[in-house]
Amino acid sequence: MLFQNGNLKVRKLEEKDRYLLAKWLSNPLVLAFYEGRDNAFDLDKVKKVFYSSKDDEGKCMVEFGGNEIGYIQFYPLDDARKREYGYFNENIYGIDQFIGEVEYWNKGIGTLLVTSMVKYLMDHKKAVRVVMDPQTRNTRAIKCYEKCGFKKVRILPNHELHEGKYHDCWLIEYHK
User: Fold this and answer.
1) Taking the mean position of all CA atoms in its chain, how far away is CA 31?
2) d(CA 156, CA 162)
């Protein structure tokens, strides 16, 4: 287990989790803001995307009250991404997450998850900043992130291809 905060647990992704990822990433409600409804996952795609890369991402499952409910990943920003975002030699981490079990939406769990992950990255990875780049139209997520202490830095125009169209995203950051 990476960390626990009350009923919330975050642990490293395991092989058995592929079935839940395929379930969640084939749900149009989840895909509306994560990956795109035209980009559903099956088990083969889950294996290719989540299990075959040798990158620096910390790929994790999110549990709440003993149930697997979502996914979160964290990764140090490489130099190219730092330059793109206007940062330099700081230790900066990015995070991406979703709650795949939609009955857990709008219950404050996303806020608990993001604040807990930021604390973990600051305390254990010595991150100076944590950044995300949500689509500007994802107002529910942005509201959650602002509750967690993230601030909007700037618009990233045409930053993410989603459902066949490029969308603007916010660069948001949490800074000590």
Assistant:
1) 13
2) 14
CB-CB contact of 54 with 105 (8 Å): no
Q: How many helices (H) and strands (E) does the chain have?
A: 6, 8
Tens-digit pLDDT profile for residues 7-64:
999 999 999 999 999 999 999 999 998 889 999 999 999 999 999 877 657 999 999 9
Separation between Cα atoms, residue 128 and residue 150, nearest integer Å: 13
The whole model's pTM is what?
0.95
Does residue 56 contact residue 36 with C-beta atoms inside 8 Å? Answer: no
| CA pair distance 1, 53, nearest whole angstrom | 21
Q: For residue 154, list its beta bridge partners.
A: 171
pLDDT digits 0-9 by tens, 118-161: 999 999 999 999 999 999 999 999 999 999 999 999 999 999 99
Domain boundaries 3-175, corresponding CATH code: 3.40.630.30
DSSP characters over 80-144:
HHHHHHT--SS-EEEEEEEE-SGGGTTSSHHHHHHHHHHHHHHHHS--SEEEE--BTT-HHHHHH
